[in-house]
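Q: Give me the 3D complex with 5'-O-[(L-methionyl)-sulphamoyl]adenosine.
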Amino acid sequence: MSDKTYYITTPIYYPSDNLHIGHAYTTVAADTLARYKRMRGYDVFFLTGSDEHGQKIERKAKSEGMTPIEYVDGIVANFKHLWKKLLITNDDFIRTSEERHIKVVQHIFKKIYDKGDIYKSEYEGWYCTPCETFWTDRQLDEGKCPDCGREVELLKEESYFFRMSKYADQLLQYIEQNPDFIQPQARRNEMINFIKQGLEDLCVSRTTFNWGIPVPIDENHVIYVWFDALTNYISAIGYLDDPEKFNRYWPADLHLVGKDIVRFHTIIWPIILLAAEIPLPKQVFGHGWMLLEGGKMSKSKGNVVDPLVLIDKYGVDAVRYFLLREMPYGNDGSYSEDALIHRINMDLANDLGNLLSRTTAMINKFCDGKIPKPGEPAEEDQELIQLAEKTPGAVEQLLEEMQLANSLARIWDLVNKANKYIEDMAPWNLAKNPETRPRLNTVMYNLVETIRIVTVLCTPYMPTLPKKVFDQLGISDSKELHTWDSAKQWGSMPDGVTINRGEPIFPRIQVDNQQDKENQEQKQVKEVQQQEQNLIDINEFAKVDLRVAEVVAAEKVENADKLLKLTVSLGNEQRTVVAGIAKYYEPDALVGKKVILVANLKSAKLRGITSEGMVLAASKGKKLALLTVDEDIPAGSKVK
Ligand code: MSP
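A: Here is the predicted complex, encoded as structure tokens.
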């Protein structure tokens, strides 16, 4: 067993519903890193699981007429099925309902309680009985329950509290001394600010529901779900029962989580560990969210994308490639089926698929189907060879920094360079002349070797790809040519191997009528959603002609104490505008101001005066302020 270990985790998912493409991203990203580290010789432990307790699940089960465990058993089986279809190589799957986990959570709770860092007190808050939920003052929506809008009452509940505040300084110190602990940088800064604002003690027990782990010293309480859930990272690796395993893998190298739960992982979790005197994890990385063309995916919106459907339709490698390629570092990514098809057709079918297909076709045609012996590399081979030699190191560096999308982009630089090399070298011309035969052999060899290297580098991302490519290149049994290290050895590919040109590795997706119809339907759903949310598109906004206008004269309108008559200049024309701003501005003070005019508003008569536009102002309560421009800019300028 290697002495280099790597312990990587995903969040444990709530089995309140089946998982969607966003959840799949986290697990695919973690799997890619786990596979990569294994290729680099690490003894990897890769953990995922399910976070099964809590009121939400208790209620959901009830609504389905099941006990909580019956309900979650079904959903957890679906999780495991999905991970199998996505070729996830987790070493364990922890369920928080398992005895091995419950034991550890109770042990940690008791340990912290015995130290005096968990104490009993009263939790006071606004309680919504139908929702069975406590709210703080700030969470209320105009004094009512923010979920259901009903009346709330001030209630007190006996609870256990965790003295988080006591550990704030120690945590800050850890974060400062370990700059990589929270990544990316922006989230690190956010967390530092959060802690500096002061931490409140955390309520870590509940009495309003039963589906949870009992507080070891008080059967009336169950342990707060996050205290329970976070502990999975140590219960799964034998914190109590298997010290050898625990010491081997802990502290975790990486907790990979979505941006919404960074706070739980970088504040609550480390403080639990500090209080329990267990070392802290080395890194928490918070990735962005996979959004649906800009919006959030949710059951209630009915826009959840089921990864199983996509895998069946497009294949597992394509789905994994898309997810990893489309989530930019530190930001949100965007999913649409069109974008997925585009990636498949461009990157996979055109760029990579065609590279292999053209190369094997030419080897069959010009080289009797055998990989030729290369001659000395010529000047014009250098760029390709140098890029191939540099790419593995660049990919390693990017993967260490969790730059998954960029690491794929790097590999594709090499793919594209190879395609360009074919165009530049024009092997079909070299084949015409016996004198250029040696050059042809070198060019074909270089192409095969580049494809081999690209394939090795793609292995962690797209696990079924290598077999397909290596079969075609005739090197399926030569395991030594599949290793990560071999990708750093240009020239490892032997010559004389007989290739087996086969089917395209990524067939192009025909965007047929059915697809069009589905896309059309999706677009319509989106339009309706946007209308519902009162959204306008850019074309609608562009209909409004906004201009900078200079006030050249202003006077009160007779017998109308709210109105001013303004004369404004648009550079090459003057307009009269009646504005309801007399209570806020003296006419003289307006002359010379540059304001914003809606220039294509239908004219209207006010107190006998024709108003040819409208000036924009912001107002709230009794305040009103005209919109003006920040820099001096000529009257008539367009505002956009
Ligand atoms: N059970 C907690 C985690 C406990 S970990 C000790 C939880 N579960 S969850 O099922 O709601 O979410 C799990 C993960 O999925 C989170 O990291 C969350 O950010 C991620 N995602 C949920 N929707 C997502 C997207 N649309 N895109 C990317 N990730 C998203 O939170």
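A quick observation: Residues 11-14, 22-23, 25-26, 51, 229-230, 232, 257-258, 260-261, 289-290, 297 surround 5'-O-[(L-methionyl)-sulphamoyl]adenosine (CB under 6 Å).
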